Amino acid sequence: MSVKLSIAAAALALAAVSPLAAHAGDREFFDSTAGVWQGPGEIVAGKYKGTKFTCDLKGESKSTGAGLKLDGSCRVGVFAQPMSATIERNGESYKGSFLDGSDGKGLDIVSGAVVGNRVIVGINRKNLNGAMIARLKDKNTLNVTISVRVNDSLVPVIGMTLDRKMDQASVGSIKQAD
Q: Which residues form the signal peptide (predicted)?
């Protein structure tokens, strides 16, 4: 129930943001999501409901303007699927794609806005419309929910929690012998 309320609140927040009123903090948000991310996810609705997967992704903020390029893979058991996404500013909104876009096996990003600690993008593939919400819970935790529109509601179908992978460099001291 709280997931539906959270998605509904995010959808309302996106609707309240005029496409002409992009936030100045967009670049800062995307810069803060750059890095290596790992974590589990689950398909929570539809034909493959209950399927659990794990993703390893690397995000790089766009060098010009605001946006993000994400590459990596997600796996179910021993089967891995390449995963990529590009989100970039398009005027006062956003455009981009997951995988190869709706002309291939992926989705198009057709709109979007950064609202506080989250980015909300509209997604489309032929007759399928929905939203992807990526929220920074804290600087090292990213929650992602993908929802599809069913009648007048957004229904969550995929959820995942990604943790920032930190360098595991050893730190120590060397004591000089007398």
A: 1-24
| pLDDT tops 90 at residue 31 | no
Does 11 score more than 60 pLDDT? no
The closest of 30, 69, 36 to 55, measured between CA atoms, is: 36
Instruction: Report residue 60 CA to chain centroid gap.
Output: 12
Extract long-range pairs of 112-116: CB within 8 Å, 24+ residues apart.
Answer: 112/14, 112/87, 113/14, 113/17, 113/19, 113/22, 113/23, 114/22, 114/23, 114/25, 114/26, 114/29, 114/30, 114/66, 115/10, 115/13, 115/14, 115/17, 115/23
Distance CA 5, CA 97 (A): 26
> Is pLDDT at 39 greater than 90 in this prediction?
yes
How far lies 52's CA from each of 41, 76, 96, 97, in Å?
6, 7, 26, 23
Q: In the prediction, which pLDDT does 81 show?
A: 92
Complete domains list, the chain, with CATH: 2-164 (2.40.128.20)
Cα–Cα distance for residue pair 136/146, rounded to 1 Å: 15
Q: Which residues make Cβ contacts (< 8 Å) with residue 158, sequence separation at least 6? A: 41, 42, 43, 44, 144, 145, 146
> What tokens were used for 171?
């730190």
